[in-house]
Amino acid sequence: MTGVIQGTMAVVAVLCVVANVFIVAADLSRAEFVLANSAEVGLRPAALPYLATLKGAGAVGLVAGFAGLPLLGLAAAVGLVAFYVGAVVAHIRTRVFHNISFPLVFLVLAAGAVSHFALVLS
């Protein structure tokens, strides 16, 4: 059973990398949905490249974790959890609930990546 759990968490961590690469590209290209969601929670468009950099660094850290640096992978996953907790809080603070599922999905994926690297390191 432990192997199944570890395999599942590895898949979730890979999905976390893919999702973050996607959203970094969307942020940097200023996709319409990104601009609309950002405006709803009071985020200026000028902040998008900085946020994309943080998400991108997290994705790179996860990849480094898979490449043999699991402690770096764990640190990156924890950073992504903190980032997406902040995104969920921003949605709650501004009472924007109709699209809160997006940061929640990213948060769940990041939490799964934490679980994966914690299992690898145990």
UniProtKB/TrEMBL annotation:
Organism: Streptomyces kasugaensis
GO CC terms, sorted: membrane
Highest rank taxon of the organism: Bacteria
Keywords associated with the record: Membrane, Transmembrane, Transmembrane helix
Localization of this protein: Membrane
UniProt cross-references to Pfam families, sorted A to Z: DoxX_2
Lineage: Bacteria, Bacillati, Actinomycetota, Actinomycetes, Kitasatosporales
Record's keyword annotation contains Transcription regulation: no
UniProt xrefs under InterPro entries: DoxX
Membrane topology value: Multi-pass membrane protein
Keyword Membrane listed: yes
The protein, known as: DoxX family protein
Regions crossing the membrane: 6-26, 47-66, 72-90, 102-121
